[in-house]
Amino acid sequence: MDGLILNTEDLYTLGFQEVASRYGKEFTFSLKCKIMGQQSKEFAESIIEALELPLSVNEFLIETRKIFNDLFPLSTVLPGVERVIRHLSSCKIPIGLATSSSQETYDLKTKNHTELFDLFTYKTLGSSDPSVKRGKPHPDIFYAAAAKFPEKPEPQNCLVFEDSINGVKAAHAAGMQVVLVPDPRLDRTLVSEATLIIDSMEDFKPELFGLPSFDG
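The chain above was modelled as a monomer; its predicted structure follows.
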């Protein structure tokens, strides 16, 4: 969801930098790449350790939650995403959402996009789902997401869309195909496990994966 469907990765950067600035620290892109896809307690621990912040995990989460309560409802859908979701839904292709977000942050982020997110028959919210023990790059969330499908698809028949290094590694570890739509600053040599890398969801061609084409 974050950085792939919605622009919330940009909002996370603003929020984390606001807290880091209070202690004269910088939330860098390299640190961002390290935490993308982690569950909330995991990324809090990573940021606190990397920036040597005098905060506990709970204190960090409380401070950032105050900021994100205002920011997340401002989220926007990224280019090309709605077309892909609506196309797969109309073609009766089973689709699910696998996000490391909690139920609380999911509700904030999708507040103004409920119609679009209602097209996902199955949702896995990693930070609130007890079956997801570990965040990305571990494959837990994708195993949990696939298990919700009545068809019980084999991993190699699942296609994941991701925007992060950790997400690609998690999907690859789960034995699934993965399309990466990365931040333009990302070093693509770090994501060799991706099945396909595209600049934008506007560039996605479903037929490359045996799915109905947009003009079919």
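The chain has a mean pLDDT of 95.
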